[in-house]
Prior knowledge:
Layout: E1 2-5, E2 16-21, E3 24-30, E4 54-56, H1 62-65, H2 68-73, E5 79-82, H3 84-114, H4 126-133, E6 136-138, E7 145-146, E8 151-157, E9 165-172, E10 177-182, E11 205-209, H5 223-236, E12 240-243, H6 249-259, H7 263-268, E13 274-277, H8 279-290, H9 297-305, E14 315-318, H10 321-326, E15 334-337, H11 347-354, E16 361-364, H12 373-378, E17 383-386, E18 389-392, E19 396-399, H13 409-417, E20 426-430, H14 434-444, E21 451-453, E22 460-462
Amino acid sequence: MKLKFCGASKMVTGSCYYIEAMGRKFLIDCGLFHGEEEEKNKERFPFNPNELDFVILTHAHIDHSGRIPLLYKRGFKGTIYCTQATGDLIKIMLRDSAHIQISETEWENKKRQQKKLDLVEPLYDFDDVELALENVHTIPYNYIFKIDSNIHINLKDAGHLLGSSIVELFVHDRKVNKKVVFTGDLGNLNIPIIKDHEYINEADYLIVESTYGNRLHKPIEESNSLYNIIVDTIQRGGNVIIPSFAVGRTQELLYILNNYIDIEKRSRLQDVDIYVDSPLATAATEIFREHMECFDEETLKKLDIDNFPLDFNNLTFTSSKEASIRLAYKKGVVIISSSGMCDAGRIKHHLKSNIEDENSSIVFVGYQASGTLGRRILDGEKRVKIFGESLNVKAKIHEFPGLSGHADMDGLIHWIKSIKDGVRGKIFLTHGDVDAIDNLSREIKQVTSADIVKPSIFEEYKL
Length: 463
C-alpha cells in the first residue's frame, strides 16, 4: 500500500492524498490551493487522473473539493464517495467555484489582450462540474461501505462542517488487514448548529490535520465581544465587515447573533441591519434546513420552541449584483460576505469601500492562509491592493479565532489521546503551517509512542 501527499503538506491548502492499494488507485480529497500556493492549481497532477478508480471526499470546503472538476477535465471517470450533506453542498460550491474560475479568467484575458499575450482558459468550467456531480455516491455516517471485496470505508462525523467526515479506510489482504484513518478537518468542540466530532477506537496509520497545532481558541462566549464591536462601530457611524466562508462559518455567525448574545443585548441589535451578501451563503443556508440530522441537541431543542435559528427580522440575504452594489452606500450596517480569506467574491468590494474608513471595523472569524489578502490585513499591513488599487488600512481590525471550525492544539491532542487502542504505526501531520506542525509533533510525543511524520509535498510512503 502506497500513500503520497499531493497537497496540504506543510501548508493549509490543497488537501489531496493519493493511495495505491490492492490494485486500486484513488484519492482522499482533491482541493484547490490558495494564497501563495495558488499557482500549483495549474500544474500537472502527480498521478494520472485517467488511472484513478474513485475519490473519497471528507467534506465540501473548496480546499478539499475544489480540484475535483479538474480531475474529470483531465480524464478521471470514477465515482466520488461522500456523505449526503456533502453531496448537496458541493452542488452549489463547485458551481460557484467554476463561476469564479471563468470570471477571473475573463478578467485576466482582458489584460492579456491589451498586452498582446496568449489567452488562457479557466481551470475548469460548468460542464466539468456537472460531470463530477453526476458521479457522486453518498454514504450515511457509521455505515461500513464496501467499495470492493478488499477496500471498505466508514465515515464518522468530523464535527467541522455540515456533512464533514473522518474517513476510516480498511484494506483487506489475505496476509494482513490495515486500517488507515484520515481526520479531514477535525471540528472544534461546541461550535454552533452541528454535532461535535466523533472518536475512533484504533488505527494502524493516522493522517491528522494540524491547522491550529500551536494555538488555543478562546471560548465561544466571546460572542458578547462581537456584540460590543458591532455596537461601538455603529455608534461611530461605520460598518462592520465580516469576511466569512459562505458554507459553515456564515451559518454559525447567524446562529450566534440570534442565540448566544444575552436577551438584553440581543434586543439592542434588532435595529441594526445585518446583511449576508453571498448567493452561495444563501443557498447553503437552505441546505442546512434540509439536513437537520446533522444538528446538535441544543439546535434541535431551539427548533421545537422557536423559528429556524438562522432567521431573524433584521437579517437580509442579498442575491443580485444590484443589491450588493447598493450596500456600498449604506452606513451603520453589518455585512457578512465571502470569500472567507478575501481573495475572491463580493467581500473584496466591501473591503474596498470600507477599509479606509477609520469608523468601520473588519472582523476575521476564520483561518487566513499565508499570502491571502485576509492574512495581509490581519498581519497589520498598512497598505493593501484591492482590484489593482492601493488602499490605506484605516478600519479597525479584529480577530475571533474562537469561532473557528477547526480543533485547536488541545482539541487535537485530546482526540488523539482518546483513541482507545492507540495508533500502531505512524501518525502523519498535514494541513498546517510548519510552526503548527512542529509544535503539534512535540505535544503528540508526550501522549503516544507512535512515530510522528511531517511529510513534504509529493513525498510517498509505503504502509
